Amino acid sequence: MEQQTSTTLTDQAPADPAATDDALATQPVGYWSGLAHTAVTRHLRDAMARIDVTQPEYWVLNRVHGGTAAPTREEVVAQLTPLADGPQDISRVVDQLLHRGWLRSGNGQTLHLTAEGEAARVRLRELVTGVRAEVHRGVSDTEYVAALKVLRTMVANVEGLRTP
């Protein structure tokens, strides 16, 4: 049996955006993680929209750029679909990037970045790095790592897994 990290169980309080620091231990993690996800994703997508790019397009450009071998369309779709809003989104994004001239399709349906696609990926990387700096303002790397480790443990707890 796993040992509790606290000697007392904390009652769950209703979500309260104005909760004081001493009341945060009673706040629902689902509310706060969901609020963070929504705010950060909206901020990032708004920044990308100002340069006429979507977050899924960025995912595809990065996936095609990374790795030792050119991925196939099917590989890109399979890897990125769990992140997307729907099952057809990534396939549509691949089509959009092919039409835009940022991707080209090689033999066997492998995908490659064009020079324009690589330039867009580099511009997006710079934009995302700036957005990350905005989001992380006032949060040390140590605090950030600690927060992610807590979230990873909570996910493992509800999925019945333990992360090393």
Explained architecture:
The chain has 164 residues and is mainly alpha-helical. It is built from six helices and two strands. A two-stranded antiparallel sheet has the order 1-2. Helix 1 (29-49) crosses helix 5 (115-136) and helix 2 crosses helix 5. The longest helix has 22 residues, at 115-136. It is elongated. The model has no long low-confidence stretch (mean pLDDT 89).
Which characteristics define this entry?
164 residues; mainly alpha; two-stranded antiparallel sheet; 6 helices
Give a brief description.
With 164 residues, the protein is mostly helical. Helix content is 57%, strand content 4%.
Please outline the helices and strands:
Blueprint: H1 29-49, H2 55-65, H3 73-80, H4 89-100, E1 103-105, E2 111-113, H5 115-136, H6 141-159
Antiparallel strand pairs: 1-2
Helix pairs in contact: 1-5, 2-5
